[in-house]
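Page 47, continued from p. 46.
Same chain as before, 262 aa.
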Amino acid sequence: MIHGPDQLSSMIVRSLEQVESLDPEGEDAALFAGQLATARSDLFEGGGTLASLPEAARKNALILSRATIRLIKDIPAIAEAMLNAIDRRTTEPAVRCALAGSLSYLVRPRDLLPDDLPGGYGLVDDCMILRATVTEFLEYLPKEFTSADRERRVLELLATCIPPERLPQFQAEVEGIWLTFHALLWKSEDEVDGVTSDILRDPLGTPLPAPERESIPLPPGPRLSMSPGEEILSFESGKLTISFSSGHCLELSEAGEILSWK
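Result:
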């Protein structure tokens, strides 16, 4: 990445070192699966710890962990695309600020899931926040970077890793960025650019504007999941199928590669 000498970019580079070190085929998958077995004890028979799971459930947990780590490893490409959009002066000021605000979440060491949780599990929320932002501001990212439909499907998969009772907290974080973006649309360009500059210079110390929801005409924002806690996992013919309450199905290989969305 080549960007200006701002604090946000420097902190992102350090955060990405952790992401790039993750190995979905190695020990990280088992460490992640251990966190997953505890977080989603409702999803796996015998949940609580990875060792307590029956063999079939343990295998499913490992496959889902490998798939999620692979998605987390997309963070560097997403972050670079966002930083490039922020650098372009043709990007709308409010969008630049919203992207910067989303990236500031990435560099927080203590957020909804602490980043140092084993196996990269603590990066699930960072991945969700960035991808939820991508779905709303895709037109400002490179052509063929991804698609809004794919990112919405990915959010369904990532939400599978979160305890259902905690998902409202994640949704509130996403809505906070969305609400901030719409608040910024009502401010002057100079004022918005000032907030963006403050985030770039001091991402951890700069609060985002927090307007009253009732004061802004707010269209629907990104949704992380429709009905968390109702997923069904089934393994057959070397593939793990995850059926969501939305009616979507996802097929994963044993290596955690996405084979198809239905």
